[in-house]
Amino acid sequence: MRLPYVATAASAVALVLAVGAPNADASSAVRFGKIQYNSPGSDTGSNSSLNAEYVTVTNHAATKRKLTGWTLRDASHHVFHFPTFSLASGASVRVHTGKGSNGAHDVYWGSGYYIWNNTGDKAILRNTAGTTLDTCSWGSSGPGYVSC
Questions:
Q1: Domain holding 127: CATH number?
Q2: What is the rounded distance in angstroms from the CA atom of residue 45 to the CA atom of residue 92?
Q3: CA gap 75, 54 in Å, rounded
Q4: What range does the domain containing 121 cover?
């Protein structure tokens, strides 16, 4: 009777290891860098002030990554959808809060008001399947930016 128990225990351990293995290296190659959650100077609401509030996303992979359709959101469910966009290996893109012309290193949310709360918030990056790839949080005290 011991043999089936040992085999069952061994099978259970193998299953746990097999299921646990992907989660052991769950960090995404595309993840947050610096988040400037408090626009420097007075919060005037001008487009230049809005664009001084941004989130940096960096591709740490050895290959280019397609971000088309990925989302960036805050704790209050403001959602930015990446346009048709690819991020080169080792490159970063800034997602600015205000309006502007999208390019290889800067994209624009198009919001008319600030997204990121100075008193604490959470940035969430998700792929097209809705899988959370990275998060970054901050509290009420700090220099107005956080490195994730």
A1: 2.60.40.1260
A2: 26
A3: 15
A4: 28-147
What is the rounded distance in angstroms from the CA atom of residue 67 to the CA atom of residue 83?
Answer: 8
Q: Is the residue at 128 inside a domain? A: yes
Q: Which of 125, 132, 138 is nearest to 58 (CA)?
A: 125
Q: Which residue has the tokens 């990275």?
A: 134
Residue 7 in any domain: the answer is: no
In tens, the pLDDT along 25-65 reads 347 899 999 999 999 998 999 999 999 999 999 999 999 99
Q: What is the pLDDT of residues 61-84, one digit of tens each?
A: 999 999 999 999 999 999 999 999
Structural domain count of the chain: 1
Cα(88)–Cα(92) distance, rounded to whole angstroms?
8
What global pTM score does this model have? 0.81
Q: Which has the closest alpha carbon to 57: 41, 38, 76, 73?
A: 73
Which two structure tokens, joined as six digits, stand for 78?
A: 């403001």
**Would 6 be classed as within a structural domain?**
no
List Cβ neighbours of 20 (8 Å cut-off, separation of 6 or more): none
Alpha helices in 1-148 (DSSP H): 2-24, 47-51
